[in-house]
Amino acid sequence: MNQFLKRYLSSRLAAVGLMIVVVVLLAALLGPWIVPYDPSAQDILQRLKPPLWHGSEGIHLLGTDALGRDIFSRIIAGARVSTLVGVSSVVISGVVGVTFGLLAGYDEKYSGRVLMMLTDIQLAIPFLVLALAVAAVVGPSLWNIIAILGLTNWVQYARIVRAECLVLREREFIQAAHSMGISSPHILTRHLLPNVMSSVIVISSLLVAKMILFESSLSYLGLGVPAETPTWGTMISDGRNYIATAWWVATIPGIAIFITVIGTNLVGDRLRDLLDPRLQQMEG
User: Fold this and answer.
1) Band (258; pLDDT cuts 50, 70, 90)
2) How many CB atoms lie within 10 A of CB 99?
């Protein structure tokens, strides 16, 4: 682990990305104890106050929105929602996709063909269109959006895990396990799964950023979490009518999304460089 951490931190960009991710996670975990104001508390007398560096005479670090709510507190509260949605949906996608990929790659007969047929059908439907349709039907809810994002992004795991299983099942240690009479579930969980986990970790790290973007997009359209829950996408939607007069209402949450996605992608890119055996061979 120490060697891995040293190799990871040898890249300055990766170190910056890790720092961003850690800050966002701490904000999400410690949010209720560090926010200076109630994220949902309204104060019309303090509406559209600019940030402190913009000449504001108030005590709101990042200003306030059209209802007088503190933007800094809402940014921290939105970090909790984005982190929960990103991580939870990736976990659901990973469990479903890895299971399907292992089964399809290990058994290319009827079950494997059926699973890959489902994968091809899923790929034929644009993800955002499918997510919008399902969200419009089931309604805005935090757990609904997690389920929607989780159950519509498992295809990436399934295809990559299946491709690796097709190669691994021909290796000597898998053939030896078959000759010893080891059961298929044992081979899948003890021999194949550990050998595809590096790819799963890389996909997961990159997919978290994608889930945060999709959650923000759905919230912006009013199909994400309920409007009373502070999210970055909802904050941008609330501030789009004040771009000319109060730019900070929509711009600051947009910057938060940008920085979080960049940090997560930097972490994912570095993990891919360290865990992908093909890239390691090229470097060697």
Assistant:
1) very high
2) 17
Name the CATH superfamily for 27-283.
MetI-like (1.10.3720.10)
End-to-end CA, the chain: 21
Mean pLDDT computed over 250-279: 83
Strands (E), 6-147: none
Residue 59 and residue 4 in contact, taking contact as beta carbons nearer than 8 Å = no
Q: Which is higher by pLDDT, 104 or 236?
A: 236
- Which residues, including other chains, have CB under 8 Å from residue 115's CB and lie 6 or more apart? 100, 103, 104, 158
* Largest Cα–Cα separation, the chain: 77
Count the alpha carbons within 13 Å of 134 in the hemisphere toward its beta carbon: 18
Nearest to 73 by CA among 62, 84, 83: 62
The per-residue pLDDT for range 140-193, each reduced to its tens digit, is 778 888 888 888 888 888 888 888 888 887 788 777 877 787 777 787 888 888
Kindly report the pTM of this predicted structure.
0.82
For the chain, domain boundaries: 27-283
Write out the two tokens for 14: 């990766």
What is the rounded distance in angstroms from the CA atom of residue 195 to the CA atom of residue 109?
A: 22
Under a CB-based contact definition with an 8 Å cutoff, are residues 216 and 134 in contact?
A: no
Dihedrals phi, psi of 141, to nearest 5 degrees: -165, 145
